[in-house]
Structures are given as C-alpha cells and as structure tokens.
C-alpha cells in the first residue's frame, strides 16, 4: 500500500519534471504552422533543426558554447584544485579566505558584467570567444575551488603523511595521491562548472557578438526577433539540453558520489 | 644504525596549548619501545614529530645520531603505520607496497621481488592485485605493515596499528609484531592506549600524560614501581586500589597505615623509607591481585569488606568490596574463580602488604621506597 | 618568513577581490561628471543615491526585491525541508529522485523562461510581484531541497530514534528534534536562497514590468538607457550588494558551518 | 509486568540478506539479559526490533504478554540508551531528561522532581542546565541513562552504552549499571561485544552470530559448556585453545585424544559420552587457565610445548607455546606471574583434562557430555 503510494507520487513528480522538456521535444519535430496544435503529433519534420543550423547559425553557437564551457573549466581546474587543497589542508588564510571565495559567488552578476565589459573592451576581448572563455574561467574558479575544498577536506591527512614518509614531497603526495583519489570529486566539479558555463546568459549576451554568441544567446534571439517561432525555439531548447543529458548520463555516479562531499573511502 | 633520541622536544600549538612538553628520551638501535597513554596525551604527536610529519617547536630529534629536526619526512627513512592504515585506495596491494621504493627511484625489476618477499612473509601473496577496499580489516593492517617492511627503513613507527581490529585478531597481530621485531631487529616505536599491548610487546614503556613523559622503564618495573597514582591506575584493569590513609604507630611501635575501615602494618623493609611520610595525607596503593580470599603466606593481613559485587569472569573472579562507612571506598580484589560471596555480605579478605605503595594525596607522587626484586620465577614472599 | 609570504599573498588576493566593490563605493559618492577621474576622491556627493531613489524608482525596486527574495524562500523552505528529509532519511525515490532534483538545476534558464512567461501570461501573473515570488519559490525549492538533504544526512538517526522511544511520533521527532538541530543548515540554505533570488536577472527581466521590477533589472536599465551614467550605476551596485554584506555578516558562522554539510555535533 | 518474548523473529533486508534469523527468546520480568556477539551479528537489530525502531519481517514481539509487533516505539514504553547517547544537542540536560515525560503529557511541575531525583542518583545535579556539548563522555553517558530512568519505562534496552568510554570509566559504569538494575528491578537488555561485560553484568547471556542466537544461558554455564567453537573462542581472552585431535584407545583401553605433539587421557567420567566421537576429526578445547606450570592435582597431565612468547601482564603471565612440528599449533597457557621461560625453550606444562571439550572439526559443534558442577566455591578437582 505504502509502496504503491510512493510510486504513484514519484510518477506524478517525474511527469511534472519531464513534461516541459518532452513537450519541447515534440514541438521541435512539428512543422511551425502546426506547433500550437493540441494534437499529439500533427506532423513530423526535421525542418526546424535544419533551419536552426542553416539559417540561424546554431552550428557556430554550438561550437562556441562547447569551446567556452570546456575551455573555461580546463583553465580553472588546476588553479581551483591547488587553491581548494591549500584551503582544505593548510587552512591557508583561514575562515576569511573561505568567505572571500564564497563572497565572489554572491555578487549580483548584473553588477559585475558592466565593469567586465569595460575592461574587456579596453584590452580588446569583447566579441571574442577567448574573452568569454576567460570570463567563464574567472567565474568557475571560486565555484570549483569551493566544491573541491569540500572534497579535499574529506581525504584523510594520513594518506598524504603515508606518501611523505614513503618518500614523496608534499607536492608529490598531492599529485600522486590526493588528485587520483579525488578524481570523482574533480569530475563532478568539472561537470557542474561545464553546466554553469553552458547555461550562462548575461555575460554571453554582453560580451559576445553575432559570430561569437553561445547557445543561450542564440536561443534568446529566437525568442525576440520578429515574433516567437515556437517550433524553432523548441528545437533550440532540445539542442541546448542535449549535452546536459549526455553529460549527466556519463557522470551520474560521480555527481551523486562527489556531491555528498567528504566521503572518500 | 637507528637509535632515536629526543632532546627537550616540545610541541606548542598556535592555540597556546602544549601538545608535547619537554620530552627527553634515548631509544637504542633495535629496541622495541611503547608509548602508552590516554587519548590526547601527546603520544601520537611525539611519534609524528619523530617521523617529521609535525614540526618540532623546540628541542632536537636525532635518528642514528644525526639531527633530523629540519629534515622532511622523506629524508628520515622511517616507516609509519597509521591507525587508519592509510592505504592508497586507488592502488593495488602490490602498488601500495612498492610505492616507497618507487619514490626512491628503485627500478621496477628490483621492487617486485621485495614486494613478493614481504607479501609471502605476511600471507598476502594471493591478494597482491586487489585494491584495499576489497580487503578485510586484518588484511589491510598487514598491507600497511608490508608497505613499511618493503622499504627496509631504519625504524618502524606504529601509531595504534591494532586498535581497529577485533579482540582475537588483535591478540594474534600483537604476537606477530613481536615476532617481526625479533626477525627484523629494527627499532620500533609502538603507540597505544592498551595496557596489554604495553605490558607484553615492548622492551620499555614510556607512559605519557598531558604531553609529558611521566615514567619510562621496563614493563614489569613500571608495573611494580609506579611513579604516581596515574601510572598506578592506568597500567592494569582493574586498576590499583587507592585508599586514603595516614601513617601512624601501631602496637609495639611498628608503623601502620590507617584509614577508615582499614589498618595495615607496614612491612619492616619499607618502614624506614616511609618514615618521612608521617603526618601527610596519603593514598595506600594495593593491586587487586595482592588481595585474596585466603592468606598465601602467614604475613598477609586481614581486610574486612562488605561485598558490593562479585564479577565472575570464568577465568577468575573480581570482588568489589566496600571499606569504611562514612566515606566508603570501593576496592577490587582478584580472588580465585571458585570463590563466592553474596552481595552485602561482610567478608574477610587478606592483603599482601609487601608490594604496597604510598602516594602523596595532594600531588599523587609516590613516596619513594626500595623496589622489590623484579618479578621473576621466584614467588615474592615476605 | 613563510607567514610573511602567506600574509602578503592574502593582502594581494583581498585587494583583487575587494578593489572592484571599493571602486564602486568610491564612484557612487563622486559627482557624475567627475566619475571617470583617476583622482581618489575628486568630490563627495549623495546626489547619485538621491537620483537613484527619486528619479529611478529604486525604492520600489528595492522593496520588490526584498518581498520576492524573502517571500520565495519562506514559501519554499517548509516543502524543501520535508522533501530533503524524506530523501535523506527514507531514501524516498532513491537515487532517481535525487538526480531529478539535481536535473532541474541543470536546465538552461533561457530555455525555461519562455514557457514560464507563456504560462504566467495565461494565468495573469506576469508583471506582478506575486508571480515573480512564485517563480523564485519554484526555483528555490530544488536548490534548498538539495542543500538540506545534505544537512539532514549528517544528523544521526539515533536522535530521532531516541525521540520516538521517548514518546514522539515520527512527525514530532522531525519538528522537535531534526529541525531545531538543523537550524544552522536551514539558516545557511535560506540565506543562499535569498542571495540566489536577489541576484536573479533573467526571470525578473521577462516576468516583471516597470512597477514590479527588481534591483538587478533596475541596475540593467541604468546601464542601457541613454548611455551609461557610471556614478549612478556605482550607487546602484552598492545598494545591490548592501543586503548581501549585511546578510553575510549576520550568518557567517551559519554559512561556513552549514556548508560543510554533514557535521552536526 | 515487563517480560519480553521473541517468537521466531526474523529481519530480512531489502538486499535479501537476513539481519536476524528466527530468534526465539523469553526474558522474565526484572531479568538482566546480555546480547553478546561480534559486530554485524544482529544483536543491535534485535534490540531495535524490540524497541520498534526497525520493522519485524516475520515473527512476534511481546512485551508484558502483549504483542507489540505492530505498535510504534512510543507505545511500547521501553527506553533505549544508544551507543552514541543520542542526546538532543539543542536541549539542556534537564530538558533532555524531561523530554520523555513531556511527550507523554506530564505537567512540568510533575516532571521537575523526577528529573531532580534521577539527576541526584546519577550525580548530575550540578549539570542540569548545561547543554550536552559541555559535558564529558562519562557525563553524557549518565544523562542518556538518566533520560531513560526518568520515564520509568517497563524495560531498558541498552545498545553498547559503555563502548565509547575509556577502560576505567567503563569498569565503573559496569558496576553502576548492575547496582541500578538491583535498585530499579526492571528488565534490562544490554547489547555488547565485550566479554567482560557479558560475563559480569547479566543473569543470562544470549550469544549471537550471523543473525542467529547460538547459545543462551547463565554466564558461567555458557563459559563452562560452550555449544560450539565460536562460543568457546569468543567468550574469553585469550580464547580457548583448539587442538586438532582424534579419539584413540590408550594403554589399558582408556580413551585418549591424540594429535600432533599431544596425547591426553580422557577423564573416566567423559569416556562414555565421547565414545560416539571415535574416528571423526575433532578439536580438543582446553582453556588457557586449565594449563599451568605445575599440576594442581595429581590427575593433571603433562603437555610439552616450545615457548614462542612469554606475555608478562604483571598480574599474570601468558605463555604462548607451540605443539607439534609438521603443522604446528600455538596454544596459550595462563601461568603464575612468577613463572619465566626463554623463547624457544622446550618446557613441560600440565593440563587439567576434566573441563575439556571435544568439538566436531567439520561443524564446530560440541560433542555433548555431562556438564561439570557449575563453578562455585569448591575447586573443581577430579
């Protein structure tokens, strides 16, 4: 009885969560004129996707998004690992430093985007994929640091001590022991950083130009230019969600494992 | 050569608290030394300072006669076995055991036979390709030991290596460590809070409390001649009985210790030594095994107690008896496993006053007296 | 020597983090024409703040932001607490339910904002503080659930068992024991939810109107309407950051304590 | 009335593993029962099923004759003391102790004197306004106990309540729990993995292994008549020696047990009972205290061993000796504290064969024989 109730509840919740993406999936395959129809599938076409990539340059946006998201995580990760480790193990800077890291996460993005724009224009980094990658790396750095700090704190110091008496330097113990043991946490943090960058809209809007836009900016432009073309928007939404689905399938266990923090074993 | 010397070694934490205070100790090459004490007494900190894992605030650590105070752990060539074992979870047993040699630049071809030999010795040969997570607690403990052995270090530092094992395995490993020491002949420092390990494993025990080394000596010497009430109570279960007494003159002028519900004549051979303690508040120390249901010798003196509990352990029985009425004191007596008594019954036990100790009630320090002959084959008869 | 190095490093880092807000603070008190001057303080005025509140309706935005941020957290918290507890203690729904919660956090906001807008327009909740509060509550719910789940997992089940043998129902054990013991975590989660809502820009932009805008929308409007009035923007940035500073002063220990998750004691 | 009865109680986990298997047990009102076993044996699970904290998969739990299997914990009126103490961290000691009564709707004015009385009894009176975090481990333990006492429950269920205390405090609290039981007269179930607690505290021990109750009985009965090798080894440290033997006819036709390096004549009174065991592979069980450095009685039989280790504990000495050469077996003997021997030396010890046991080497089950008189005042002489 009780199990039945639970399963019923779960089905409802799942539907609520899954319906909007499923509806978007359906709409993306329906010809534009029939998009608002209440029929389940009034017609099937790939035209929306073709239009998206041919007319709307989604191929470019996609590539930009991938470069920017992956690049920014790859740039920020080594620094975040070292900083997070220093905070976790040596309590470098103590509570103040930790709060400072957290504080950077609390500033309203709207308040930061203008100074960034002015700075970037000064050094010629606006309207460039490189500029956006740098901006996202700066955004990912404190975020990744915070997550990795939690993860490193869960690693017993005994492991490093053992490595050091075994002949490793502190640096060697970090790279040979701490980093391999933390791989699940690093993978989880990396995926979250990727998602954060992939979904970011405000900085992308302000710092990019027509050729350097990312998927969210492309998606927004679909929604405002000459009325909403709902089927193309749906196709864009599906494309925007796709890498997130792929990523989370691959690293499910890392996410759940990694985000419980602390528990290495 | 791996003697280890500590010279006025202290550890002061940033909080202003001392972790370790002014510890002086010489450990000879090949000696098996036990650091014993309750948790937080500084024994593990001392071990880690020897290993170089914690900085020494003041004082000097020497290994093999050479000061290593400023050297990092990797240059001290000592192996540490941690309480948590600290096995590298992402490496196989083989890689764990070979890591130390690999870090020292030994060729893989030279590492393999050494790992194989150590694994053989510890019965780990069939587990070499497993990860630590796939091993039992006892096996992990062996791998940790094996990792230390493979490196052939100057000394082994063991930080409560047996405390995560169950009672039976602990007893087995205790014996194996002793055998290992006998076969390798290396210096071993073993940190523990377990009295049985302390009494049975080492050449010497160093008892620590609040960061200080309060007594160092051969196990039976320390057992027979504790320096203070802390050592007296810490070294056995049930602990030494401590009974508030004063020193008085008994009939015929012989000195007696007298307390509420107790009066014992001080043996002749201690009389002179205890003369100075007259008039002070004292604690009489009597071990439970020196109180028995019948006198083992005519010199044993009667002691009346009211039975509070009879703890029948199968091997032996412990009587918890109460002496005195106003400020009653509970004492333990180890009697024969065949002895029985009812709760609340008034019985007469017999105490051997010869191994008695007197402690100053204020400071807890022992009132010095000549030690008895060290415990050995001959029974201690008055 | 080493301590000196650490402190030197910390000063540098602190400067890097603090300089932009400090520069904004300085600029907000400088008369508009002198705002770009390189002098430290070419003049002092309160005019920027007065303009902000009198001409630019920042008073209204401020009130809207507070209502929306506080309200959404208050609405979402009880549900988040119960859901998080069910996930943590009864493993309701298992790993799948947890991933579903996490998944909602991963969808690109740009992809969600349009359906939300259409839905809200249909029920008449656009251009309304109520509508924005509901949207933010929905946004906060999975976020708060996830954080509280981690916190509840750190509370030993023994405590609840003790309460139940002491005569409490499961529900009573939750409210009388689990919730009070988790207060630091709940406070930390609440503050983070507040900050999330306070800083949110995209939904506020799409769902609000001139009278129902929030601080980030107001700030953005300063930056785009008839050229950038940098001193007023600076004043707006200061005002936007202010409650975050106040909040984090008050709950520093909760944040740091609460965000280590797991460790109740 | 708070008898507790378990009838075919089982706990099956979702994983398909049994936590507890078909446990049958009657506990009388006022009885003090110990659940003893290694970790993971199901003893805590059984306790929690009695308390209602875990659901029973099959079987019935009765308290005071009434089935409570379907009742929630709050309607069973039993108190649980947890290993972690589970004190409510946001409440003072006073509030912690009064919480149970408050939940039952007792007026604040009626709670106060009961809390005060329990606090008085446990020496907590001056800590009533502290939070648990400001208490020592021993004090927390007392508060947990006090919280249970204040409610005046039908039964106390104690889940390893002493395991987080240090050795000395543990010994004190052991005694206090026994006194408490004596003064309250309530049913107590005490879960532990500590043999000393099991032997000394309860009226009966229930030994569990792998979810089953393998033996139930009075402590000394179980000690003297273990049902299998698990119980034989688990109940003491050092454990019972188990030596592979077979049953043969000795000179004169008397049955003898013979193994590598050992041959003991079976006492006359066991001869008939052991007749059936002839020809099977057996394990001879001899407790370390039944092997001594000299015969306590002419009936004791010599046993030659090679000394592997001499563990001098101060109170007594344990000799680890090796018998046999091809498949050497190590045995423990508890000798006098004055006995000494060198490592590797060949010595003769003497064994009392009267309390011997034989176990089937395959199943581990004991070969039944008549029990000796229960251990008591009179020495067990052949």
List keywords for this structure.
heterotetramer; A: 265 residues; mainly alpha; MetI-like fold; 2 domains; 12 helices; 77% helix; disordered C terminus; B: 382 residues; alpha+beta; Rossmann fold; OB fold (Dihydrolipoamide Acetyltransferase, E2P); 6-stranded mixed sheet; 5-stranded antiparallel sheet; 9 helices; 20 strands; 24% helix; elongated
List strands and helices in order, with pairings.
The complex is a heterotetramer, with two copies of chain A (265 residues) and two copies of chain B (382 residues).
Chain A: H1 2-28, H2 47-54, H3 58-90, H4 94-106, H5 109-123, H6 129-153, H7 157-165, H8 170-181, H9 183-199, H10 202-207, H11 215-224, H12 230-259
Chain B: E1 4-12, E2 18-27, E3 32-36, H1 43-51, E4 58-63, E5 66-67, E6 78-81, H2 93-103, H3 108-122, H4 137-150, E7 155-159, H5 167-184, E8 187-192, H6 195-201, E9 204-209, E10 212-217, H7 219-224, H8 229-234, E11 241-249, E12 255-259, E13 262-265, H9 268-274, E14 282-286, E15 291-292, E16 301-312, E17 317-323, E18 329-335, E19 346-351, E20 357-360
Parallel strand pairs in B: 3-8, 3-9, 6-7, 7-8
Antiparallel strand pairs in B: 1-2, 1-4, 4-5, 9-10, 11-12, 11-14, 12-13, 14-20, 15-19, 16-17, 16-19, 17-18
Q: Tell me the number of strands of chain B.
A: 20
Strand order of the main beta sheet of chain B, please?
A: 6-7-8-3-9-10
Order of SSEs of chain A: HHHHHHHHHHHH
Mean pLDDT of chain A: 81
How many angstroms does the end-to-end distance of chain A come to? 37 Å
The level of helicity of chain A is: over 70%
Number of helices of chain A: 12
What share of residues of chain B is helical? 10-25%
Rg calculated over all Cα atoms of chain A: 22 Å
Q: Based on Cα principal axes, name the global outline of chain A.
A: globular
Instruction: Please give the domain count of chain A.
Output: 2
Round the Cα radius of gyration of chain B to an integer and report it.
25 Å
In total, the number of domains of chain B comes to 2
Q: What amount of the residues of chain A lies in strands?
A: under 5%
* Oligomer status: heterotetramer
What is the arithmetic mean of pLDDT of chain B? 92
């Amino acid at each position: 009885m009780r199990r039945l109730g639970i399963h019923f509840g779960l089905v409802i919740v799942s539907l609520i969560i899954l319906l909007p993406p499923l509806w978007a999936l359906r709409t993306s395959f329906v010809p534009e004129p029939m998009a608002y129809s209440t029929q389940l599938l009034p017609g099937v076409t790939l035209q929306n996707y073709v239009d998206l990539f041919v007319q709307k340059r989604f191929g470019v946006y996609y590539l930009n998004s991938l470069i920017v998201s992956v690049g920014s995580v790859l740039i920020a990760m080594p620094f975040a690992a070292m900083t997070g480790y220093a905070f976790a193990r040596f309590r470098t800077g103590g509570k103040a430093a930790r709060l400072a890291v957290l504080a950077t996460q609390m500033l309203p993005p709207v308040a930061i985007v203008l100074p960034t724009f002015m700075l970037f224009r000064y050094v010629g980094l606006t309207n460039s994929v490189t500029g956006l990658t740098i901006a996202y790396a700066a955004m990912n750095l404190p975020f990744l640091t915070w997550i990795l700090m939690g993860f490193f704190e869960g690693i017993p110091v005994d492991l490093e001590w053992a490595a050091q008496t075994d002949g490793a330097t502190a640096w060697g113990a970090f790279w040979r022991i701490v980093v391999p043991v933390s791989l699940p946490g690093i993978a989880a943090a990396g995926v979250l950083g990727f998602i954060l960058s992939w979904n970011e809209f405000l900085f992308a809007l302000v710092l990019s130009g027509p050729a350097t836009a990312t998927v969210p900016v492309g998606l927004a432009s679909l929604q405002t230019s000459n009325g909403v073309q709902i089927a193309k928007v749906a196709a864009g939404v599906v494309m925007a969600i796709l890498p997130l689905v792929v990523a989370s399938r691959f690293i499910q266990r890392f996410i759940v494992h990694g985000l419980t923090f602390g528990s290495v074993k | 050569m791996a003697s280890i010397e500590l010279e006025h070694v202290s550890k002061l934490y940033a909080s202003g608290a001392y972790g370790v205070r002014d510890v002086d100790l010489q450990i000879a090459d090949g000696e098996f030394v036990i650091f014993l004490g309750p948790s937080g007494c500084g024994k593990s900190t001392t071990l880690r300072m020897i290993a170089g894992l914690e900085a020494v605030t003041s004082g000097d650590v020497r290994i093999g006669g050479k000061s290593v105070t400023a050297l990092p752990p990797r240059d001290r060539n000592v192996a540490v076995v941690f309480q948590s074992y600290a096995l590298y979870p992402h490496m196989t047993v083989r890689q764990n055991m070979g890591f130390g040699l690999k870090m020292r630049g030994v060729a893989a071809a030279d590492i393999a036979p050494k790992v194989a030999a150590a694994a053989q010795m510890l019965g780990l040969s069939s587990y070499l390709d497993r990860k630590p997570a796939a091993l039992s607690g006892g096996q992990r403990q062996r791998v940790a030991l094996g990792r230390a052995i493979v490196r052939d270090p100057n000394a082994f530092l063991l930080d409560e290596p047996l405390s995560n094992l169950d009672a039976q395995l602990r007893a087995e490993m205790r014996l194996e460590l002793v055998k290992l020491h006998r076969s390798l002949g290396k210096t071993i420092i073993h940190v523990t809070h377990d009295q049985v390990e302390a009494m049975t494993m080492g050449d010497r025990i160093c008892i620590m409390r609040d960061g200080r080394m309060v007594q160092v000596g051969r196990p039976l010497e320390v057992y027979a001649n504790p320096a203070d009430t802390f050592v007296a109570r810490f070294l056995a279960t049930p602990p030494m009985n401590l009974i508030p007494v004063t020193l008085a003159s008994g009939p015929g002028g012989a000195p007696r210790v007298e307390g509420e519900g107790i009066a014992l004549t001080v043996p002749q051979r201690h009389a002179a030594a205890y003369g100075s303690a007259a008039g002070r508040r004292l604690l009489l120390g009597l071990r439970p095994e020196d109180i028995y249901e019948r006198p083992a010798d005519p010199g044993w003196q009667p002691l009346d107690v009211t039975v509070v509990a009879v703890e029948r352990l199968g091997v032996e029985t412990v009587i918890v008896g109460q002496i005195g009425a106003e400020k009653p004191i509970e004492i333990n007596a180890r009697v024969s496993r065949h002895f029985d008594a009812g709760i609340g019954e008034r019985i007469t036990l017999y105490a051997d006053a010869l191994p008695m100790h007197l402690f100053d009630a204020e400071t807890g320090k022992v009132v010095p007296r000549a030690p008895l002959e060290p415990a050995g084959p001959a029974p201690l008869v008055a």
